[in-house]
Design brief:
Elements: H1 2-10, E1 12-14, E2 20-22, E3 28-30, E4 38-39, E5 51-53, E6 56-60, E7 63-64, E8 66-71, E9 85-90, H2 104-107, E10 120-121, H3 124-134, E11 138-141, H4 150-162, E12 166-171, H5 177-183, E13 189-193, H6 199-205, H7 209-221, E14 225-232, H8 240-253, E15 259-263, H9 278-291, E16 296-299, E17 311-312, E18 319-324, E19 327-331, E20 372-373
């Protein structure tokens, strides 16, 4: 852990001035996430990776904790370039400490001694070059909480957009107005994990629900393409009342926001709750429908959830995109993103034509960028 800490402390640069405020007694307030930590001299914020050294905020830079090529459906984005390949990269650290985190090896690397993923030196040009070599259309910051490494993401995404790539965040949504405005010019797609609709549950995970709900509203109002995921955990966030409040909140923002309700399985430190069943998912789907959501997807149980992996026209019910897990089996949208049967416009970010699918499952890049493990 100390060796990893030393490695990461050397892979930094100064924070963007839009994301930091100087306070009294050499403290600094960081605005990269909803905690808005007032960080004393010599200390780090809640995330463990943004720290005050000599009255200057230093932030992660110049490395990646891993890269992987994913179908964009895995992120999941179902209304953004179906079938496209997403080149995913991440760093280390998180502003939450979810006990069921599936990416704990990177997100909890500075909290948990068993969470070790050797960082590799990288440049924005390295990552973009590698993404293009794999045939990716989208570059996504994921695997840890990307908001706490926003300066790095901004640099990578600026390079990516110049190369014609789409950019995206896979995030817990615990943002601030400052960080979202900072990212706005560089970002196209934003997936938020809305983990609960109960502030007490968010306190268990190390956060508050208020900044997350505010960020969801802001992300949508900014015109970024937004999709929401809720991992349905029996006994934690699956009560009918909580799901109704959650889905009514989303429907008030827009009934066209896609909501993915996905199946939980025991992971990391949360192994006690039973796994989510098909019936659990379908019950949540029905609550979402009653709340007025038009695009609801039941995930993580391929082939078992009837029509709820597919995209249908909300006006005439025609099948538009048929899926099995991450695999696109049929694609019927018109080039301008309309239903071919009734011409209803389907909200999303669509390609002019479906270009097939490079892969329907995640894989490591075949040709790696020149990334070198950071040595202490």
């Amino acid at each position: 852990m100390s060796t990893l800490r030393a490695m990461l402390d050397s892979q930094v640069r100064e924070a963007d001035p839009h994301l930091v405020e100087k306070l009294e007694n050499n403290r600094l307030r960081c605005y990269s996430c909803g905690h808005c930590c007032p960080i004393p001299e010599g200390q780090a914020g809640v995330c463990k990776v943004r720290f005050n050294r000599g009255g200057t905020l230093f932030v992660p830079w110049g490395y990646t904790a891993g890269t992987q090529c994913d179908p964009v459906e895995k992120k999941p984005f179902f209304h953004a370039y179906p079938g496209a390949l997403a080149y995913s990269f991440g760093m280390m650290g998180c502003d939450l400490h979810c006990s069921y985190c599936q990416n704990w090896v990177t997100s909890q690397a500075l909290r948990d001694p068993s969470a070790v993923s050797p960082p590799q030196q990288a440049s924005p040009e390295d990552l973009v070059r590698d993404a293009l070599a794999q045939g990716a259309k989208i570059l996504v910051s994921t695997y840890n909480e990307p908001l706490i490494t926003s300066e790095w993401a901004g640099a990578v995404f600026k390079e990516a957009k110049a190369a014609g790539l789409v950019t995206g965040f896979v995030s817990n949504g615990n943002g601030t107005p400052q960080v979202l405005e900072y990212l706005r010019p560089h970002l196209d797609l934003y997936k938020v994990d809305l983990k609960s609709f109960d502030d007490r549950h968010y306190h268990e995970l190390g956060g508050r629900i208020g900044p997350i709900l505010d960020s969801i509203r802001r992300i949508h109002s900014m015109g970024l393409w937004l999709e929401i995921v809720t991992l349905l955990i029996p006994g934690f966030n699956d009560s009918p009342d909580e799901l109704r409040r959650l889905t009514e909140f989303l429907a008030r923002i827009s009934p066209d926001v896609p909501w993915h309700v996905t199946a939980f399985h025991g992971d990391y430190k949360m192994t006690d709750p039973r796994n989510t069943t098909v019936d659990d998912l379908l019950r949540a789907v029905e609550i979402g429908r009653e709340s007025g959501l038009r695009y609801i997807y039941a995930g993580n149980l391929p082939g078992m959830v009837d029509r709820w992996e597919d995209t249908h026209c909300p006006q005439c019910a025609a099948l538009l995109i048929k899926r099995y897990g991450y695999l696109i089996e049929d694609y019927r949208l018109t080039p301008d993103g309309r239903c071919p049967k009734c011409s209803a416009a389907i909200p999303g970010r669509w390609s002019a034509r479906f270009e097939g699918q490079i892969a329907s499952h995640p894989f490591l890049p075949r040709r790696r960028a020149r990334l070198f493990t950071i040595q202490n």
